[in-house]
Give the backbone structure.
Amino acid sequence: MFEFAFVIPFWLLALIAGASTGILWLLLGRFVRPGCCVGCGYDLRGSASNRCSECGREMTRQA
Ligand SMILES: [Zn+2]
């Protein structure tokens, strides 16, 4: 029974890989806020243009 501590189950590795991927995805998703440029994160809420004034990327506006 003692050896069990040294054997990492495959599902645990899959769980860790999945969790870290999910956390990374959430962090990256949080970086691009609504109303901000998806390319550089510049705040475009005050801008009337559909194009980012910082990097020139076209803006897809969300409600
Ligand atoms: Zn930009």
